[in-house]
Amino acid sequence: MDYSLEVKDLSKRYNTFALNNVSFNLKPGSIMGFIGENGAGKSTTIKSILNLIHRDHGEIKIFGLDNIKSEKEIRQNIGIVFDECRFHDTLYAKDVDLFLSKIYKNWDSKLYSHYLEQFKLPAKKYIKEFSRGMKMKLSIAAALSHNPQLLLLDEPTSGLDPIVRTEILDVFLEFIQDEKNSILMSSHITGDLEKIADYITFIHEGKIELSESKDDIIYSYGILKCKQSDFSQIDIKDIISYRKNSFGYEVLVTNKAKLSRKYPNYIIDSASLEDIMLFYSKGVQKC
Ligand SMILES: Nc1ncnc2c1ncn2[C@@H]1O[C@H](COP(=O)(O)OP(=O)(O)OP(=O)(O)O)[C@@H](O)[C@H]1O
Question: What's this model's pTM, rounded to 2 decimal places?
Fold first, then answer.
């Protein structure tokens, strides 16, 4: 199996929004960060992958199987975490064990207890008395304890402090160590993805702008800075997007190394994932 997840030409139209031929692939043994501004289409894509919403067009394969025809079989092998805890407030963490053992064939109560211990979650305390961080850790413990091969995570670390986030990111890194498992994780915390993701897929207004190795993106993208009077010297073909400020222009470019030679008089700084998102969202796009 070449890919754990293949999304091809996925389209979905709502009244005022459309996913437009979304395509990307996720390799086993890797983490893909799924980024984009609010309303870009991340959750709509993840819900389509899980067949929670009806798509208009496209094909989705998970472990090489069609996500609709083989939904039941696939679900047994996927761990899901949304940004809200899906367990009822009046349950104890230990009740989740009983409940999910009836749903998942490969449910591993020992592994679940191990995660409760690792995350310092009390087995006998109402979930309504858990903090947000505790609820997220409970969701992650539950998502991992039926030994899935794919984790689909929609903002799993939102609203959590850096210590809890680091703890959770370590668990995700451990999860993919066997080279069979993989993770698709949407997040606005691009710094987290810079730490753990192997690939980044960036969606903007329902369209995939890039889906590449994180290292290639960080190596290739840059921000060229020039004075207002020099802006016309920049070849329009080299401009992805630009922003004007009081000092001059900032231009998002790719192929930083080549352009540093082409424009030796201008500074080209490295671009972070946040910069890239910002330029696509707030900059003026030229090509
Ligand atoms: N059931 C629905 N009916 C109509 N429009 C919807 C529905 N669900 C989502 N949308 C719209 O689709 C667009 C994309 O929403 P989506 O939740 O996929 O974005 P997102 O990238 O996950 O955003 P966020 O980062 O804020 O979670 C938004 O404009 C949203 O209003």
Answer: 0.93
